[in-house]
Structures are given as C-alpha cells and as structure tokens.
Predict the structure of Histidine phosphatase family protein.
Amino acid sequence: MKNLILIRHAKSNWDAPLKDIDRPLDQRGYKDAHLVSLNIINDLPKTFIIWSSIAKRASDTAVIFAQNLLYPMESIVYKDTLYTFDERQLEKIVKSCSNSYDSLILFGHNAAITNFVNKFGDVFIDNVPTAGFVSLQFDTDYWEKIKKGKTKKIIAPKDLK
C-alpha cells in the first residue's frame, strides 16, 4: 500500500516585484499553513517522507508543516523538478519515489496538484486551494505502478475556519 499526500503551497504574496520562484507566503498563507498542519495529525501515516518544490512559497509551507508535525526540517527533500505546473511531470516525480517508502508528503503547485488528484483519485476536486491537503491511497507496493487510487481525505483551510 502506498500513501501520497499532496499539499498545495499556502497563499503567496504578489506585492513585491519578484521572480515567480522567489515569491514568499503572505500573512494569510502563514496562518492557513499553521491551521491545516495542526489539524491533520490524525490523518497522517505513522511514518513518511517530505518532498518539496524549491519555490520559496512551497518550501516555506513545507517548513511550517514539518515544524508543527515534529518532522526534522533537515530531512525535507527539496526537488527543483517539483517546481512544475504540469501533472505529467508531477506523475513522473511521484513514480520515482523509492519503494522503501510507503508514504510521501509532497508540497507543490497548481494546476499540477489538482490535475494529478483528479487523475489518480476517485473524488473530483474542482480546485485544490492554497494550503489544501489531499490524501490518496494506492493498492500497490510499487510507486511506479500507481494508478487510480482512493481519495482518503480532502482538507481546505476554509473547512477549518
């Protein structure tokens, strides 16, 4: 059994004239990341690894979750390939995960996340919101063989307010 949790980065700040990859979280982003991360503890597998996009807004979101989940921040794996908006690229990355890990938490971007969960989950989601959490489960022991799985949990920040 493989468990995949996809988390879209929290709300980012568009005010500063920065390159897209350098955009930080805004105040709502920080609040929503803390809110969701503090409310998912019972929805997580016992052990997992965390991968994050190198984009500042995604990596900052991953750090907030790691802190609140007592996950060692130095164990977060940052992947430049996760700075993608294409679900086919996201699929390749997920399928590259070592089979020695049964559970992966991945921080990334839309439209890749929404399209991925609609392709691989069994519940249609119009849009995974910023700081949105989607948990998928696959009946296989091999990441490279994942196909249609079960959508186990969907959490949006607005659900917790």
About this structure: The radius of gyration is 14 Å.
